Amino acid sequence: MNSVLTACCFAATLCFSHPAAAQISSSYVEDDRMAPFRNGFAKIIDKGQVYYINVQGEKIELAETTPVSFNDAYSVQDYQREIKEEADFLPKTVLKYLKNGKIGIISPKGDILLAADYDDIDIEYRQFWKVKRNGKVSLFLADKTSYLISRISDI
Questions:
Q1: DSSP 3-state assignment of 153?
Q2: Which of 42, 52, 79, 112 could bridge across to 93 with cysteines, CB 3.0–4.6 Å?
Q3: Residue 79 in contact with residue 89, Cβ under 8 Å?
Q4: Of all residues in the chain, what percent are helix, strand and coil, respectively (each to 5)?
Q5: pLDDT average, residue stretch 89-116
Q6: How far is CA 2 from the centre of its chain?
């Protein structure tokens, strides 16, 4: 029995070590892949595009690459510590996401913090996020209020 198993493993190794087989298998893995659901989300790689889906099948596409990872245990821990210890400030461990061409803010664990209603969001500062919508700039504060800025020099 063990010799049969060893022979099968050896044959599979030879087969996938062939350059053509390796190219086919690696292109399949790189182009189309779905990770298992974890914490209600699954990572999808479809022809090089990376996005997530929730259990309802809704697509979550990240707007940019950051050191914060979506649905990652360490990023979730950092986010939870940050909102607990520094509740008077906006969290820094957040991600921008896209929906219908607009940008929003999502936590690493998948909570929508700011709906995708904006053309741009600057999350550089913890005291406020600068949000742009239809050519108008507002400041979104930690207490969830928003103030329209009449001149950019006001910031």
A1: helix
A2: 79
A3: no
A4: 30, 35, 35
A5: 95
A6: 44
